[in-house]
Structures are given as structure tokens and as C-alpha cells.
Amino acid sequence: MIASLRGTVLTIGLDHAVIECAGVGYKFLATPVTLGSLRRGEEATVLTSMVVKEDSMTLYGFGNDEDREMFHVLQSVSGLGPKLAVAALSVMGAGQLAAAISSGDAKTLQSIPGVGKRMAERLALELKDKVSVFAPQAGAGEATTGTSAVANAPVVEQVVEALVGLGFSDKAARPVVESIVETDPAAETSTVLRGALAQLGRKK
């Protein structure tokens, strides 16, 4: 089992990154917050969890122990797999999720793409006693905006595509993304994605 990676960051995508360790590049899926903390060409350490299925082995990366543990706890709920767990951590950190689950705040939990009323109620019911170990504070802070400018249209399309992949509709995502890019034309894709997730999470 691969528990962590430490090495040079080779590539960073909208939903994944590749870190080279001892000459081997390891690809892992991660939240925008985790990806936003990485810098291409620099050394980084990422905590990981490997999900093994019959036809695949997938690494998921995390910036801290709390998010990784919450990733595991969320999957103890029937019908909630690793992709939905990552979507949850993309909208809220471990502390925010724990607070929403502990208080039975189904409305907040439904801001997670792919989580409807029934799943939100199941989360609150099944995990209430399991999330007490998590700090009740917000998980992720503000990320540093990159300095390299990017063209507006490609950024909008890339971020909208990523949001649709997370479960948001194009109709809901596009205006939010366009507004963020218009406000800060030089923002990198990871920064725009984090901002859009924050806004869409509040609106849903």
C-alpha cells in the first residue's frame, strides 16, 4: 500500500498531478485545494490512499491526515465511493464536513455534487458518531494565486468541464466561472476552479 509520495512534481492537471519518486512517476487524483498547493518542478510530499478494484488501482492524494481520514470515513456509507468522497472534500474540508454531519445539516451536505436529500440524510445518520474526532474548523484556507497569465476562453472551458465532471450542470457552472475569470483574467485554472466550487457550494 502506498501511503505517501515525496518527490518532484512533474505535472498538475485539474483533477490530478504526477510526482516522480526514484525515477517513477505516480499519478494521483486530488481536490483543487491539494493540487493548488503543488508547484511544477518543485519537491512536494503528498499523503495518499490507494483504491483497488478488479480493473484498476487508483491513487488519491491529500495535503493532510484529516482529509485522508475523512475520505475513508465517507466511503463507509453505502453508495458513496471514492469519486464522491473527493467531490465532498473539494467543496468542504474535513472540519466543515464533520460540522455539517454532526449537526445534521442536510442542506449544506446537498451542496456536494452528486449528493441528494436521501444521501445527505444517510451521511448525517450513519457518520454522526464517526466524525467527532475531526476538528470543527474549516479545512482549507485561501490559496496563493499563480502569476502566469492564461487566456480567458481556454480557462473557462477547462474549469467548466471539470465542474461538469464533478456533477454540476453547464448552465449553473459557466456563469460563475466566467464571472471569476472576468474579475481576475490572470488567475490560473486551479484558482478559478477553487473559487467556482466555493460559490457553487453556497448556491446549491
From TrEMBL:
<protein>
    <recommendedName>
        <fullName>Holliday junction branch migration complex subunit RuvA</fullName>
    </recommendedName>
</protein>
<feature type="region of interest" description="Domain III">
    <location>
        <begin position="151"/>
        <end position="204"/>
    </location>
</feature>
<dbReference type="Pfam" id="PF14520">
    <property type="entry name" value="HHH_5"/>
</dbReference>
<dbReference type="Pfam" id="PF07499">
    <property type="entry name" value="RuvA_C"/>
</dbReference>
<dbReference type="InterPro" id="IPR036267">
    <property type="entry name" value="RuvA_C_sf"/>
</dbReference>
<feature type="domain" description="Helix-hairpin-helix DNA-binding motif class 1">
    <location>
        <begin position="107"/>
        <end position="126"/>
    </location>
</feature>
<comment type="similarity">
    <text>Belongs to the RuvA family.</text>
</comment>
<dbReference type="InterPro" id="IPR012340">
    <property type="entry name" value="NA-bd_OB-fold"/>
</dbReference>
<keyword id="KW-0238">DNA-binding</keyword>
<keyword id="KW-0227">DNA damage</keyword>
<keyword id="KW-0547">Nucleotide-binding</keyword>
<dbReference type="InterPro" id="IPR000085">
    <property type="entry name" value="RuvA"/>
</dbReference>
<keyword id="KW-0067">ATP-binding</keyword>
<feature type="domain" description="Helix-hairpin-helix DNA-binding motif class 1">
    <location>
        <begin position="72"/>
        <end position="91"/>
    </location>
</feature>
<dbReference type="GO" id="GO:0003678">
    <property type="term" value="F:DNA helicase activity"/>
</dbReference>
<keyword id="KW-0963">Cytoplasm</keyword>
<dbReference type="Pfam" id="PF01330">
    <property type="entry name" value="RuvA_N"/>
</dbReference>
<comment type="subunit">
    <text>Homotetramer. Forms an RuvA(8)-RuvB(12)-Holliday junction (HJ) complex. HJ DNA is sandwiched between 2 RuvA tetramers; dsDNA enters through RuvA and exits via RuvB. An RuvB hexamer assembles on each DNA strand where it exits the tetramer. Each RuvB hexamer is contacted by two RuvA subunits (via domain III) on 2 adjacent RuvB subunits; this complex drives branch migration. In the full resolvosome a probable DNA-RuvA(4)-RuvB(12)-RuvC(2) complex forms which resolves the HJ.</text>
</comment>
<dbReference type="InterPro" id="IPR010994">
    <property type="entry name" value="RuvA_2-like"/>
</dbReference>
<dbReference type="InterPro" id="IPR003583">
    <property type="entry name" value="Hlx-hairpin-Hlx_DNA-bd_motif"/>
</dbReference>
<keyword id="KW-0347">Helicase</keyword>
<keyword id="KW-0233">DNA recombination</keyword>
<keyword id="KW-0234">DNA repair</keyword>
<dbReference type="GO" id="GO:0016787">
    <property type="term" value="F:hydrolase activity"/>
</dbReference>
<dbReference type="InterPro" id="IPR011114">
    <property type="entry name" value="RuvA_C"/>
</dbReference>
<comment type="function">
    <text>The RuvA-RuvB-RuvC complex processes Holliday junction (HJ) DNA during genetic recombination and DNA repair, while the RuvA-RuvB complex plays an important role in the rescue of blocked DNA replication forks via replication fork reversal (RFR). RuvA specifically binds to HJ cruciform DNA, conferring on it an open structure. The RuvB hexamer acts as an ATP-dependent pump, pulling dsDNA into and through the RuvAB complex. HJ branch migration allows RuvC to scan DNA until it finds its consensus sequence, where it cleaves and resolves the cruciform DNA.</text>
</comment>
<keyword id="KW-0378">Hydrolase</keyword>
<dbReference type="InterPro" id="IPR013849">
    <property type="entry name" value="DNA_helicase_Holl-junc_RuvA_I"/>
</dbReference>
